Amino acid sequence: xxxxxxxxxxxxxxxxxxxxxxxxxxxxxxxxxxxxxxxxxxxxxxxxxxxxxxxxxxxxxxxxxxxxxxxxxxxxxxxxxxxxxxxxxxxxxxxxxxxxxxxxxxxxxxxxxxxxxxxxxxxxxxxxxxxxxxxxxxxxxxxxxxxxxxxxxxxxxxxxxxxxxxxxxxxxxxxxxxxxxxxxxxxxxxxxxxxxxxxxxxxxxxxxxxxxxxxxxxxxxxxxxxxxxxxxxxxxxxxxxxxxxxxxxxxxxxxxxxxxxxxxxxxxxxxxxxxxxxxxxxxxxxxxxxxxxxxxxxxxxxxxxxxxxxxxxxxxxxxxxxxxxxxxxxxxxxxxxxxxxxxxxxxxxxxxxxxxxxxxxxxxxxxxxxxxxxxxxxxxxxxxxxxxxxxxxxxxxxxxxxxxxxxxxxxxxxxxxxxxxxxxxxxxxxxxxxxxxxxxxxxxxxxxxxxxxxxxxxxxxxxxxxxxxxxxxxxxxxxxxxxxxxxxxxxxxxxxxxxxxxxxxxxxxxxxxxxxxxxxxxxxxxxxxxxxxxxxxxxxxxxxxxxxxxxxxxxxxxxxxxxxxxxxxxxxxxxxxxxxxxxxxxxxxxxxxxxxxxxxxxxxxxxxxxxxxxxxxxxxxxxxxxxxxxxxxxxxxxxxxxxxxxxxxxxxxxxxxxx
Length: 659
What we know:
By secondary structure, the protein is an alpha+beta fold. The protein folds into 3 domains: about 45-285, 6 Propeller (Neuraminidase), CATH 2.120.10; about 290-375; about 380-645, 3-Layer(aba) Sandwich (Rossmann fold). α4 (about 480-490) packs across α5 (about 510-520). The strands form 9 sheets. Strands 30-31-34-33-35-36-37-38 form an 8-stranded mixed beta sheet, sandwiched between helices. Strands 2-3-4-5 form a 4-stranded antiparallel beta sheet, with no helix packed on it.
């Protein structure tokens, strides 16, 4: 829950102040406190368990529990104490770093050594896998009383497979005691055992594809020596998330029709049945291993459907679709199911992320209870919340989807003869999605008189395969043109001050930020968080999961090297005239600091006003409370320096202009 600064007496209304200088009760500390990330949830006995980050403890991931029957308002109990940190580094993005055994034990991947540990509540953790620098584990799944994991073995060639980890500790010092269950694919994920434990289903894909490009569902009998199994779905499409039903059928997602929809098949050779297909996506890009978008329940399936925003639905065996009215509309995942009950995480339009316990015994009248998060601490915050406005424009490459969060304050307005400054936010990935929800960071800006627009540029997920593939071979062109077109539309429609529009983004979003500053004068400032500056350098330095990602986004090397050179913002950094803020994690293995440093050096040589801030101990994305606090303050101070306003509660930022 977020804690706000102390209430002040209300100023006389109406009070007119310059945009960007409005006083706000939404402090940087409040943003950090409201920033925990939920990382999975499970039914365990009579309890509900979930994982979340703790920003004030250097962003470590802990596991908490609360009684299932007293979920709403219950004070959670801490299961995983400090300094233990449940975090996997498989694919660098991790995911699925913990699970629960039938007997109520916690299994988790410890960040510091990547070993899997077992903790019985009230006891100290004991290791289940050996300490080895070459091995990382993630995507844990306890199924039919057996612990399965995705294993990443580093070497001259990185190998991925699915292994079974003995729960009796017999593999604690012997990696050879882990039982490999799959072979023959570059990447694997989402293992699932059949109800009788005889068959394994999993997701597999190979370089140069990413799992949202081409992936397949494979199945094998565990008594069959062929560990490669056989393909039962996907291959030319992007199949996703195999799940067994109680009667031994296989449910899975596939976008063979252009959108991820739910299918059922008999793995022994029966036909395939589409379940209530629709021109919406049930599914998304598999960046983290623990993601799930549907779960079988006793009377059907509960699933997430997305077209811009998420909705949760119940699908009956007869194909009837019933919407389940949960508050969450973005980043919704179906975490676990048992009988007619499900655990669902996600973000409401105007509140922090939360976890809900839902009973769908009667889908028309579901019992929905909040477990954790999902609301603001302060009941009087409502007047401060901007109302998101979804809109679309006709861009140069087709329709572009975006969401506007206008400046909002209960007692202050801007001058009648001025338009507000705006920040155009560019999500990372680039195969990802801006959910259109009021994040704490967005609220920090809008409450001070700075508008925010999130852009789902061509290539974003959540709008079907065609929209997602608009970026194929066009990264650095379509994304840049789309954000420029949105910025120009904001100015033309009188929403934003055309002389004070900034662009901000991280990772792949940072690439688009820098590319837009190179290609256009639509933005008068840019904020790049751990952004890509040189595509060739990224291809050479990045990790195995994304080692061939650029084949589809730009083209294969070495044949496309000239295209890489032409598209990279670093090649044309001399065209950047607007001030730039560069923010970087010192330990980032996905986009190493060398990328930000190269742009910094180019800006310095060109005399462009800029600032470069490095955060020790941070990787790809900022998790620590002290980092989040400094980032939001620094970004606001930078906007003030670039746009000529004085923020009410952050010190000024000096920009370097050495030429």
